[in-house]
Each structure stands twice: as C-alpha cells, then as structure tokens.
C-alpha cells in the first residue's frame, strides 16, 4: 500500500527519553555525585528494559555526566574534575561564537527578553529559588544562541551544557549569583551597543568562571 500522505508527529526514541530523564536526575541532584548506577535498578525505576538504560548511560558517559569503569561500575561524575573543566572551556567558546554572530542581528525584542530573563534571575536568587534561577539563566543565554541560528553551536551546547548545570546550581545557591547578574547586565549593555566582541568576551567569561569554581583546591 502507498505511504499515507498525512505524517504522524515523530516520537522520540526510547533511549533519548531515558537519557533525558537520567540527565535531569543527575543535574538536579536526585542522582548524587559518586552514586553507583545499576542498569537493572534504573530500568525498574523508569519502567523500561535494561537496553535503553545501557544505551543512555553510554551517551551520558560521552558527555561526562557519568563515569564508566569497565568490569566494575558506572557512577555519577563528580561536580569538579577534568570533565567539567573541559566542558566549561568548550561551552564558553560556543557562547562566544553565538554572541559574535547574534549581536548584529538582535532585535529590540531580543534585548528585552534578555533583560526580562536577568530580572527573573535576580528575583529567583533573592527568593532562594535555585531552580528558577537556573531556568532564567538558560533563558538569558538562549536568546543569543537562538538568534545566531548556528546548528553546530546548538549541538555542542546540548551535549555539554548539562555537565555544567550542576556547577551552576552550586554557584547560584551562593553569593556568586549576584556577580552573574552584574555580568548579564554588562552583556546586555554591549549587545544594545552592537559591540559584538565586547559582548562575546563577557559571555565567554561567564562560563570560564566555572573553571575556577570547579578546580579542586590543593591542601597546603
């Protein structure tokens, strides 16, 4: 029979659904750093077979959210460490590219969205709502990423961005969030002036700061 002309909406692969749920559980702390991840237990929790869980864990290992030790165990990665530092450097570079490309194209509405997101970020931090602060921060940075419309940037950020959200959660639960709000304001100011390179430097610096925040300190 011929293929029907009316297409059904695409359904996400089960592996992708499982990956998203595990990723979110790691990012929000439900699955804590160092916690052992047993595919049988996760399969029961998620109501799926072990195969998509194993596939999802392999994907999460590639992005650095979990660590796999062949023949031994798979555990949630620590918040600090080389994987986080590498991810911060890559994500910082991608945001720099996005801002350079987006700044000449930003509309007044885009600038307004950035300002509203930063206002929401400040309010969330004042209220002690870390989840809302993270959501506002994502909305703030998404403006330039969306306006740049660079598929490679979006792909890299989707892979490595979640690795940094746990570090951001720690930052936004502290006084450092006020410094982030001030840097956001600087970024808005440079974008409004259409100074792409100054804006890009601020955007990159926001993410490179996580390198310092997540670098283990040596004991004297």
UniProtKB/TrEMBL annotation:
Domain of life from the UniProt record: Bacteria
Keywords from the UniProt entry: DNA-binding, Transcription, Transcription regulation
Gene Ontology terms, MF aspect: DNA binding; DNA-binding transcription factor activity
CDD domains associated with the record: WHTH_GntR
SMART domains assigned to the protein according to its UniProt record, in alphabetical order: HTH_GNTR
Keyword Ubl conjugation: no
Magnesium found in the keyword field: no
Residue span(s) of domain HTH gntR-type: 12-79
Protein name in the entry: GntR family transcriptional regulator
Organism annotation: Microbacterium oleivorans
Lineage: Bacteria, Bacillati, Actinomycetota, Actinomycetes, Micrococcales
């Amino acid at each position: 029979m011929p293929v029907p002309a009316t297409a059904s909406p695409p359904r996400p692969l089960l592996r992708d659904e499982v990956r998203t749920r595990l990723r979110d559980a790691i990012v929000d702390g439900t699955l804590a750093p160092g916690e052992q991840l047993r595919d049988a237990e996760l399969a029961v929790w998620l109501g799926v077979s072990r195969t998509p869980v194993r596939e999802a864990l392999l994907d999460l290992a590639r992005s650095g959210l979990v660590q796999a030790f062949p023949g031994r165990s798979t555990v949630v990665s620590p918040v600090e460490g080389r994987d986080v530092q590498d991810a911060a450097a890559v994500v910082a570079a991608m945001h720099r590219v996005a801002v350079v490309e987006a700044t000449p194209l930003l509309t007044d509405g885009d600038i307004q969205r950035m300002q509203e997101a930063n206002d929401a970020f400040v309010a969330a931090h004042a209220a002690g709502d870390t989840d809302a602060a993270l959501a506002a921060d994502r909305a703030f940075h998404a403006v330039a990423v969306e306006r740049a419309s660079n598929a490679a940037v979006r792909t890299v950020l989707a892979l490595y961005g979640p690795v940094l959200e746990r570090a951001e959660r720690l930052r936004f639960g502290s006084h450092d969030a006020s410094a982030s709000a001030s840097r956001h304001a600087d970024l808005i100011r440079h974008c409004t002036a259409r100074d792409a390179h100054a804006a890009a430097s601020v955007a990159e610096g926001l993410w490179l700061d996580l390198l310092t925040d997540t670098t283990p300190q040596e004991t004297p």
